[in-house]
Amino acid sequence: METLERATAIYREFDFYVPYFEILIENRRLEKETINDIMSLTYRDNLTGIDSFELTINNWDADRRRFKYIEFDGKDVFSPGKDVEVWMGYYEGGRKKVQRMLYGEITSLGPNFPGSGPPVLNVRGLNILHRLRDRQRSDAYRNKRDSEIARIIARRIGIDIKVRDNFMTVEEPMEFIFQDNKYDIVFLMERARTIGYELYVNVEEKRLYFLPSLQGKKKYQLEWGKSLISFRPDLTTANQVSEVVVTGWNPQAKRRVVGRATRRDLETRALGVERDIRTIERSMAQRVEVIADRPVYSEREARALAKETLERISKGMIKARGSTVGLPDLKSGTYLEIRGLGDLFSGNYFVTESTHTINNSGYITTFSARKEEKK
Prior knowledge:
By secondary structure, the chain is an alpha+beta fold. It has four domains: 19-128, Roll (Phage tail proteins - horseshoe like beta roll fold); 133-212, Phage tail protein beta-alpha-beta fold, CATH 3.55.50.10; 219-235 and 318-374, Bacteriophage T4, Gp27, baseplate hub, domain 3 (Elongation Factor Tu (Ef-tu), domain 3), CATH 2.40.30; 243-314, no CATH class. Helix content is 18%, strand content 47%. The protein has seven helices and 26 strands. It has helices at 6-12, 32-37, 146-157, 184-195, 274-282, 299-314, 342-345, and strands at residues 3-4, 18-25, 28-29, 38-46, 52-58, 60-61, 66-67, 83-92, 95-112, 120-127, 136-144, 160-163, 174-183, 197-202, 207-212, 219-223, 228-235, 243-250, 255-262, 268-269, 288-291, 318-325, 335-339, 347-359, 362-371, 373-374. The strands form six sheets. Strands 1, 2, 3, 4, 5, 8, 9, 10, 16, 17, 22, 23, 24 and 25 form a 14-stranded mixed β-sheet that branches. Strand 4 and strand 5 form a beta hairpin.
């Protein structure tokens, strides 16, 4: 896994970097006057949803005493339904260093007429993938690789797909993956971000791409007091359990099936110090999660679902919110190595949500993450 120290480098040489963004609507850059009216740009993504953006724009023409962007006069710059591209990054040494954050569609306009201050317009949009949401489904995938699941979903939603397996990932089929009442495209996006893939659609080709990220599973090193501006971890054991039991029914054999997973079966854990593990896990020794409403037909499937469920619960023990200097490629699915917070809260974190904001204060990335230590 590649380790990056770019965050520290940006802080060390920050005088040479100027936050920069570009907005393209219908494949055309906004005019300079419109760019100057943009007060802030925000991009958001998370593991379980469609990524989005929001612009806050000055909507008042003081010279003409009229609104700028809701009285179109034939210039419907931000009309809902238009395609949009959002790029964010820096301008350094006469060169743009930007990354495309989103190719999507404007979905809403929200004028704001405050009691004090000029009127503003909030322009919001979603990744173009949102057009592929049809209806929520529940499904079970048995002995399938993620690339095979991607092909199944693409056929179901009626779109061509290009898939390339990642040589860095384990190619063994997964025993059991459950899609729990989710849109197909949202479920596939969650899988992609979890395993370090990119999921995007090419509108011209009408093709979906499910490919390993060009940057792979990056790990940023962020240290409190240096590259880490703020960090607020939260350790809670209230929802933790010592065991998960899954029960089902085999209609052919006409018998009950049972699968179990205990904390000894976990591949990841939130705590890295052995004394902390023993002390905290004693507090949950009698708690058991029982699942009896999932379609499992064998002990093998029941055990796989029990283990997957226990892994998910365990990964919620230590969660955190933090912020750092703007890093365009710090998104959900990224790994962080947090330093300078002591044995309990320093360590490896997996980013579940990110928010990138450029405004008059500069470029800041805030994120939510969960602590994940390998056994």
